[in-house]
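ok so for the tutorial part 2 we go from a plain amino acid sequence to predicted structure tokens. step 1 is just haveing the sequence, like this:
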Amino acid sequence: VQLQASGGGLVQAGGSLRLSCVASGRTFSSYTMGWFRQAPGKEREFVAGIMRSTVSTRYADSVKGRFIISRDNAKNTVYLQMNVLKPEDTAAYYCAADGKYTIPSYRTQEYDYWGQGTQVTVSS
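step 2 — the prediction. this is what the tokens look like for a chain of 124 residues:
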């Protein structure tokens, strides 16, 4: 599986962005998908995850109530709608695919495939 993330950019605090991640191949629906982010000098951290069937989602406490993860299996795409953005949301955002577990994991090592990062910068 190859993942291509897009949608990052520069936005003012309080604004919104929607990230997209398109997967190659015909087995997208068999993967649990996640979004992670990494700020300079910090470890990569979990942001949100979604089960294969879209039934269940999971969020980091820092984004709960502001970000929404969704997926369209017919389009091989997972989205991250980011609202009420804060300067501390500034980071490179990565999408990832996990072919083993149903429940989205917080752990980077559980994910098998990664997209390239898309930069999100939130100005104050």
